[in-house]
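Async update (no meeting this week)

Hi team, since we skipped the sync, here's where things stand on the single-chain job. The sequence we agreed to prioritize is pasted below, unchanged from the tracker. I ran it this morning and attached the output directly underneath so nobody has to dig for it. Comments welcome in thread, and please keep replies under the output.
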Amino acid sequence: MEKENIYSFTLEQLSTKMVSLNQKPYRGKQLFSWLYKKDATSFDMMSDVSKAFRKELNEKFSMNLPKIFTKQISSDGTIKLLLELEDGKKIETVLMKYIYGDSICVSSEVGCSMGCKFCASGLLKKVRGLKVNELVGQVIVMNRLLKEIDSNRRVTHLVVMGTGEPFDNYDNVINFIRIINSQFGLDIGARHITVSTCGIVPNILRYGKEGLQINLAVSLHAPSNEIRDKIMPINKMYPLEKLIPSLVQYYKDSKREMTFEYIMIKDLNDSDECAYKLVELIKPTHGFVNLIPYNEVIENDFKRSSNNRIHSFHKILLDSGIKATIRKEFGSDIDAACGQLRARYDK
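Output:
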């Protein structure tokens, strides 16, 4: 029988699993503590668990984690890992160092089926969604790497914005969040966790009712269907007439503001006209905007907006009463754009 990966279970699921093994439910919390608080690397380290049960755990479960295939470290402290999964597939995970802590960007799928024209991740089509243990494994591997650098450092913030569409792998992503958010798990605060979607409307509505208080980011990148259709195929299925009302409902259900991610692409979506259209589009949602200088990739012809254009666009938003920021750039001296590093190895 194939072993189940112990990192696949939420606390509730693990407690239920322990009962099925004729153990008391508290065993789930006990194992959770060893896995996430004490960072045990083997079942044999679990000293308050009987030898007989440790033997059973070894027989029934694995503790396998993704392996570091290659690593890049930027001069600004950004760490980019290409991780190899048990089936040989590779995914990217990135750590960015901020004043307020260490933020990890995790991938949710092997490849991506959304096909956004500007995105390096979409160059390699979706193979499959990541399992819960593969999502959790990205954080644990990065935490162990950080500990080698400084024993006091650990991941404090998390965004599901790497390769893949998180709402295309909804159940696994939500269970992953429950593990990392649990006070008995990695205990990353709900307000420190953000999930990004390019606009899968049914799961936006579902997400608003989860009651998790996790942040939502929406990859918008255009103020009109005309522009969005050119760069984001998902817009044909869920155009702005469907997307925006779903976000209004999300706000009503969750009472949480959302972030609109908006990549600034020269002569496409960066005009003053686009800025004013964006203001009118998102006003009903109570959302705010994160303007992102474009990381150019050689596989397409899109160019980054000038700094002057970005700042002019930003000023229009602010003057119109829309909260907006310009994203700080990280990893400019390594494979900065999401998907670039994996694309070098998986052709």
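Quick observations from my side:
The mean pLDDT is 93.
DSSP finds twelve helices and 14 strands in the chain.
Reply here if anything looks off.
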